[in-house]
Automatic annotation (TrEMBL):
Entry coiled-coil feature ranges: none
Protein source organism: Helicobacter equorum
Gene Ontology MF terms: metal ion binding
Protein name: Damage-inducible protein DinB
Transmembrane helix as UniProt keyword: no
Family: Belongs to the DinB family.
Keywords, comma-separated and alphabetical: Metal-binding
Binding site for a divalent metal cation: 48, 138, 142
SUPFAM superfamilies, A to Z: DinB/YfiT-like putative metalloenzymes
Length: 165
């Protein structure tokens, strides 16, 4: 399982890096434009992916590691509100999170251990591996939304493709 999760985490890092190269070419108004998606805009969707990675993987799932990683800077950034950060700061946070997620996969001792994960109104009892797969795939899903928005805007993009790593 570690090998599969490491591959997925490295793929997310690769795809995020390539996505950022495209997003860095856009104007702030293009990033913030309301395009009618659930998280409103490209930047809103980007922030949502980052929030989930910091809160769930690097927050809750990190606490299941025998020696949890130091994610205080990312947790502090999340607590202060990512919507208030500059795009440059968000890029830095995204890259830090991607490196730490790969380290977190390496630090988990038992991916089959079942833990409870609760959100307001819903709880899950799943293996640590399933939580990892769920959140790592969550990023893939929302990067696909960003790619579709870029397609509609006629912005060339191709930041997916695990085989291209």
């Amino acid at each position: 399982m570690r090998e599969i999760l490491t591959l997925q985490a490295r793929y997310n890092q690769f795809a995020n890096d390539n996505m950022l190269k495209v997003l860095e070419t856009l104007s702030p108004s293009d990033l913030q434009k309301d395009v009618g998606v659930y998280y409103t805009s490209i930047i809103g969707t980007f922030i949502h992916i980052l929030e989930a990675d910091i809160a769930i993987l690097l927050g809750i799932i990190n606490s299941y590691a025998p020696n949890p990683l130091d994610t205080k800077a990312l947790q502090d950034a999340l607590a202060s509100g990512l919507q208030n950060k500059s795009f440059e700061s968000l890029i830095t946070l995204r890259r830090q999170a991607d490196r730490l997620i790969i380290d977190l996969v390496d630090s988990i001792a038992d991916f089959n251990a079942v833990r409870e994960l609760s959100f307001p109104g819903i709880s899950f009892k799943k293996s640590i591996a399933q939580y990892f797969l769920s959140i790592l795939n969550h990023g893939t899903h929302h990067r696909g939304q960003i790619a579709a928005i870029l397609d509609i805007m006629n912005v060339p993009n191709d930041f997916a493709g695990m085989l291209g790593m």
